[in-house]
Amino acid sequence: MPISKIIKIAQVLFSIAGRYLIFAGVFYLFFYVWKKRAYWHAKIQQRYPENKHILREIIYSFFTILIFGAVIMLVIFASKQHLTRIYPSISDKGYAYYFLSIGLMILMHDTYFYWTHRAMHWKPLFKLMHKTHHLSTNPTPFAAYAFHPLEAIVEIGIVPLIAFTIPYHGTALTIFSLYSLLLNVTGHLGYELFPKGFTTHRLFKWHNTSTHHNMHHRLVKCNYGLYFNIWDRLMGTNHPDYEKSFDQIVEKRKKAKSKEGIALLPDELATE
C-alpha cells in the first residue's frame, strides 16, 4: 500500500478518535470528575457507573472508530472516482443550499436512526448486536460510540446514504458530523441540563433531552429517537412517564440550587 494512502487512513482515524475523545472526554471530566459533587443534583440516575463499565464503553468505542474510519475511507475513495454527489465549491450551489443541506442531513439522520434503532430492538437483532450498547444501563459520555461492530456499521451507514443521495459540500458533512457527535455525547451525558418546561413547550418539546435517552437505556422499550422527539411522538413510543420524569429531575435540581450549597454525594449511591 502506498505511503500516501497509509497517511490518509491514519489521518481519518486520528480525526474520528480525536473528536470522540475531546467531546466525550471534556464532558466526562467536567461532570464526572471536576464538578462531580456540584452537579450531583442534576444526575438523572443517582449513582455513578464503576470504572469497569466506563472502560467497557471506551474499548467498544475503539472498535467503532476503526469501523467508522473504514467506511469513511470508502466514501472518500468513491468521491475521488466521482461516484458520490460531493461538489467542490460552496459557490457552486450557494450558501442557502449549503446550510439547507446541513439541516437536511440532520433530518435524514434522525429518521434513519429512529427506524434502524427500532429494528435493532427486534429480539433476534437485539441479542445479536444492540444488547452491547444497552450494557450501559447508566451511560456516560463514552457510551456514545460503545457499539457492537455490526451496530457500528449500521450507525455509520448514514454517511454513504448522504453521500450518494444529496449534493453536499465536504465541510457541510463535517459540520453535520460534529453536531451528531455533540448530540450523541450529551444524550448519554447522564445529567439533565435543560430548563423547566422544556418538554411541554410548544416548540422545544420536539427536541430530545438527556432524560429521554437515559430512560431508553434504563427501560429499553421506549424513547428511540436521537435528535428530535418527532418520530417518538408520531409513533407513540415515548415512555408515558417521560415528561413527569423530566420534571422531577428539574425540580430536584431547582431545590438543590436554592439551598446554595454543594450537593452531598452519599457513598452508598456513588457507584453502581
N-to-C terminal Cα separation, in Å?
A: 47 Å
* Uncertain residue segments: none
Helix content: 55-70%
The helix/strand series, from N terminus to C terminus, equals HHHHHHHHHH
In short, what is this structure?
The protein has 272 residues and is mostly helical. The chain has helices spanning 3-34, 51-80, 94-120, 123-128, 149-156, 158-165, 170-187, 210-219, 230-235, 242-258.
Walk me through what this model shows.
- α1 (3-34) runs antiparallel to α2 and α2 crosses α5.
- 34% of the residues are buried.
- Helix content is 60%, strand content 0%.
- The chain has 10 helices and no strands.
- The chain has one domain (3-269).
- It has 272 residues and is mainly alpha-helical.
- The mean pLDDT is 93.
Helix/strand layout:
Blueprint: H1 3-34, H2 51-80, H3 94-120, H4 123-128, H5 149-156, H6 158-165, H7 170-187, H8 210-219, H9 230-235, H10 242-258
